Amino acid sequence: MKTIRYELHDGIATLTFDEPGSPVNTMCADWQRDLTTATGLVVRDKSLIKGIILASAKSTFFAGADLKSTMRLTPADAPRVFAEIEQTKKNFRTLETLGVPVVSCINGAALGGGWEVALVGHHRVAADDPRIQLGLPEITLGLIPGATGITKMTRLLGLMGAQPFILESKLFNPREALELGLVQELVPANGADLAASLRTAALLWITANPKAQHPWDAKDYKIPGGTPANPKIAGMLTVAPAMLKQKTRGLYPAPEAALAAMAEGAMVDYETATRIESRYLAKLIVSPVARNMINTFFFNMNAIKSGQSRPGASAGTARTEKYKPRKVGILGAGMMGAGIAYTQASRGIDTVLEDVSLENAQRGKLYSARLTQTRVDQGRMTLQEQQSLLERIRPTAYPADLRGCDIIIEAVFENRELKATVTHEAEPMLAEGGFFASNTSTLPISGLAQASNNPAKFIGIHFFSPVDKMRLVEIIRGKETDDETVARAYDYVQALGKLPIVVNDSRGFYTSRTFGAFVMEGAAMLGEGIPAPVIENASMQAGMPVGPLAVLDETALSLSVHVLDQTRADLAAEGKTYAATPGELLVERMVKELNRAGRAAGGGFYDYPAGQKKTLWPELKPLFEKPGHAWDLQEVKDRLLYRQAVETARCLAEGVLTSVHDGNIGSVFGIGFPAWTGGALQFIYGMGIDAFEQRCAGLAARHGAGFALDEATARAIRHHQPVY
Question: Do the domain assignments include residue 669?
Fold first, then answer.
């Protein structure tokens, strides 16, 4: 066997998982074959065996499915996949019902299939380490727990109790697992020999429990809380699918399949329940949605976390040396600056929050006080922790207080002259070796760097609002920004617990540029005569979090017009003319002619009556709708998604984006591109490049150059296509 070591000593059969050439154990093809072999050896030696121990030779217990091989599956592979899943379950069941106690020694993370391997044990003993993650995250990858996870968790926790851990992929640490009854024993994680401690606990339990079995194998077993035959459970299950459909909008088949497998499995015997589970998984695992989500939320996410977009060693700095600033200055205590200050302080970074007046700066600190008070009230933070966090934020109106900061980030209004002024004022306060960053969302970094005395140490760090909730941060490399500054900015963002993507400089960079394409396409459709409710609802039906008109209102139509005016002025200074798009012209009309500047100004595309839900502005209908104007719902959806995908592809062709993973993660976490697609570039690859190009040609013929793919863009799409 390649991936499992089988040892029989003093009546104890030990199966040690140790996949060669891999930092973790996975359910790869070799492991599946080896498990069958190992199970056969256990059966052969049954008369000699008093107990079985499942252990890992890695620093973690088990990582789950081999997702790289999953990416190569097609719908035609479903029957084979079903047979493989059933064989693995047959092996699990053989070990569980051999008539001897089985103990899982959980020395580290056990996620997805790894937790399902752990559930083979009648008794589960784990290292008492809060950093260890256990659970079933399959739903986040477009899959379901299909190696007995649904069946066992439902039988252990009940239909209602298991839902958060299956449908919401809620993870837990060993102590939480102990409280849930999912782990039965903990051993200290900081002992001299963790493996020996786990094994000792396992041996003691085996000796004390020679007739162990799973709860559901006992004759008097009943599912906690009852089966769907229970009127209370039946009532909940009647509304659950509708509530789930409202949440998924029918775009994510995995949660619906998981709920069905839970309910159906609870009405039948154990073996039938696991077979139901296998059927649902075999269908899902070969689906386009699963492929898209695995690509992005596993492979692309790991690329970001492992630093694939971070420059390597530069100026004597080794890749392995993570940079974390001790003290960071923030210029501007508005919503963005206040959010950055809170995020830094919550991660232990001393923060100087500077504004034009002490009152403004203190108001910015008050934002952190309000956020932390909510946590204190909910019991998620102690008063001491709150006080410690707030003490890390120093509000000030004096630039001199910034002296000694490792990083200074300006988060002032999007005005080139203002940004230049604060750069001149604050940059001399940097500590030796420090760097300066702009939080601009649209203005080219290379232009802003002209105000710097050291453009090599000037970079864009674009946070998204609200900072405390948005995970993405866009790092923008200017023409003169050096590698060390990019690497340090990358480490700083990761130190905040956020996801960094690295892009090259251009107007709007990647996220703002693509976001602009989305909202302006919505505005353009309104100008063409398509009803506003159709545009907004089509957007959400396609999977966007909100409609383009609603987003424009929230971000302020006046800001879009300001960016338009700034773009015109910048190009005029270069002797060029900017041709505004139909969407931009409509937004400009809304602000300058109709005095509708957005939510903050009292109303834009929507009205905001006090204490009531917002409603679309009634005047949109007479102003823009055209009686008899034909529109197609699928075409409206496609225009909103394809426009973003085309703009992303153009960014890739122009070198604004340099990797597919930055484009996918950036589009999902930065602008809300639908997760079921896997991101704006995976949207292209998932449907097939030829089909995408053909659809774009049709949209371009009807709706303009925004959908047109030139040769360079088409070439870039094909060149960067990932291969698994």
Answer: no
Tokens (6 digits) for 412: 């002032």
User: Residue 587 and residue 563: Cα distance in Å, rounded?
Assistant: 12
Angle at 330 between CA 326 and CA 336, to 5 degrees: 125
228-229-234 Cα angle (round to 5):
50
Q: Choose among 225, 213, 206, 210: nearest CA to 270.
A: 213
Which tokens in the block code for residue 30?
């070799």
The first and second tokens of residue 270, run together, are 């154990």
d(CA 34, CA 136): 23
pLDDT along the chain (724 residues), means of 10: 97 98 95 98 97 97 94 95 97 98 98 98 97 97 97 97 96 98 95 90 98 96 93 88 89 96 96 98 97 97 95 53 93 96 97 97 97 95 96 97 98 91 96 96 92 97 94 97 96 97 94 95 97 97 97 92 88 90 96 95 95 96 91 97 98 97 98 97 97 98 96 97 91
CA distance 506 to 584: 19
The CATH number for 572's domain is 1.10.1040.50
The last residue of a domain, from among 256, 286, 316: 286
- The number of C-alpha atoms within 13 Å of 163 and in the hemisphere containing its C-beta is 14
Q: From residue 401, how far is each of 396, 406, 434, 458 by CA, in Å?
A: 7, 13, 15, 20
Cis peptide before 325 (omega within 30 of 0): no
In angstroms, the Cα distances linking 164 to 115, 119, 158, 159, 258 are: 15, 18, 11, 10, 12
